[in-house]
Amino acid sequence: METVKPLDVASGKGKLRRTFAKVLNIKKLTGVVPESDKVERVKKSQEKVKLDKDLVKNAANLSESFDKLEEEYEKRLAMEALLAKLFATVSAIKSGYAQLQHAQSPYDPNGIQKADNLVVTELKTLSELKQSFLKKQLDPNPDRTLVLAEIQELRSLLKTYEIMGKKLECQLKLKDSEIMFLKEKFEESMNQNKFMEKKLNQSGQLCNPLSHNLHLSALNPTHFVTYLHHTVKSIRGFVKLMVEQMKLTAWEIDMAADTIQPEVFYYKQDHKCFAFEHFVCKVMFEAFHLPYFSSESSSANKKKSKEDKEMFFERFTELRSMKTKEYLASRPKSRFSKFCRAKYLQLVHPKMEQAFFGHLHLRNQISANEFPETSLCSAFLEMAKRVWLLHCLAFSLEPEASIFQVSKGCRFSEVYMKSVTEDAFLTAPEDDEKSSPESEVGAAFTVVPGFRIGKTLLQCEVYLTRSCQRRQIR
Predict the structure, then answer these.
(1) What is the rounded CA–CA span in Å between residue 222 and residue 117?
(2) What are the DUF641 domain coordinates in residue numbering (predicted)?
(3) 121 lies in which domain range?
(4) For a FRET experiment, which of 26, 41, 115, 307 has its CA 20 to 30 Å from that of 382?
């Protein structure tokens, strides 16, 4: 009896797998695809076609947008070119009009014709631009038009500036001619004034605003103000002569100025003459507030009556109508004679007189009531006479005039002071080596004193500097 063999299960499974694999390979080779794969491939192809359509549509939209942007840009560029050409044409018209005006004076027929043709041509161009704008005729080459328009406008502006420059040069030449004419006229007037002043001085008649028929009742502060102006003028004439004499004799002007007013900063070298003017005014106006510049008569005349004012006005009228030397010769013991002697001896130092003349004869003669014929002595007598007459006029007024000055370092006040120079206001504190940033403009010294006549105040003239000191007016 035969034995039954068991089935080989493992070998059966292997055969089945190989058979299935062969079937699949055969299907691939023969193109037979399962139904599920066909559906998936159709879906993918449809999606691809849809995507391609979207891309084509988007590309068309983008192309249309780009075309619109390019069209707008071209329109804007064309409009800019039109405006640039418009402005260039307007500038050309202005330039042509300027040329037309320039050719009229002095008259230039060729220049007028040329400028007129230019203006007409540019006006035609302007009309053509207007028509182009209305008909919307765009410039085919706007970039080139922009460059040409800019060049044309610059040329027109350059031509206009050239014409303006020529016009200003002509005006400058005309002003120079006027200045030369006015200078000659001014010099002629000055020479004539000097001649008249010399002639009046020789005749003993002072050039003053007061009429010979003036009465005491008609006096007012205006007369005093105007006569003060002439008095200060005579003082400055004497100072100028004295400084010139000092320069001729090699006098140390800087040292003398520093001796009169030490530790003063002068903005200019010529300003040191104000120190000498201060000294002369100080000497000549000393005791001005006292009758006859003397304290002897002040105690006897504490109460000034109308008769006293009339007496001062009479002395004013008397001295004004006479020559100074004649008055001194006829009245050698008068108060005015004593005034002249005292002021000269006080004003002109012996060392100065020795340097000027090489001797002291002039001093000795004046002490003996003799006033020699010298330029310095004549200038002094003229100054002394005007100061004395101003003094008589001050005591003739009602109320009488009083004198005042400001102390060194007093802060500047426009009410009481006026500056003889503007340098202190033009110079910043940091530019002044002798001033601190906190310094203010103040009086270095009084050059010409001020006066009060009732409610009327005549400012004193001061030389200003920058200082922190503040003093009161006295």
Answers:
(1) 66
(2) 75-199
(3) 55-172
(4) 307
Tell me the pairing of strands 460-467 and 456-458. unpaired
**Total domains present in the chain:** 3
Buried b (16+ CB within 10 A) or exposed e, 389-414: bbbbbbbbbeebbebbbbebbbbbee
Token pair 């302007």 is found at 126
Q: Is residue 189 part of a domain?
A: no
Tokens of 347: 């004003």
Would residue 375 count as lying in a domain?
Answer: yes
Closest to 89 (Cα-Cα) out of 154, 158, 152 = 152
Give the bridge partners for 443, in sequence order.
464
Kindly state the tokens that stand for 165.
């420059």
Please tell me the distance from the alpha carbon of residue 280 to that of residue 335, in angstroms, as a whole number. 20
Angle subtended by helix axes 335-347 and 273-284, to nearest 10: 150
Q: What is the pLDDT of residue 86?
A: 80
3-state secondary structure 216-273: HHHCCHHHHHHHHHHHHHHHHHHHHHHHHHHHHCCCCHHHHHHHHCCCCCCCCHHHHH
E strands, 34-101, where?
none
Q: What is the pTM of this model?
A: 0.55
| Total Cβ atoms within 10 A of residue 259 | 11
Query: What's the pLDDT tens digit per position in 246-285?
Result: 888 888 888 888 889 888 888 888 888 999 999 999 999 9
In three-state secondary structure terms, 184 is helix
Same domain, 63 and 103: yes
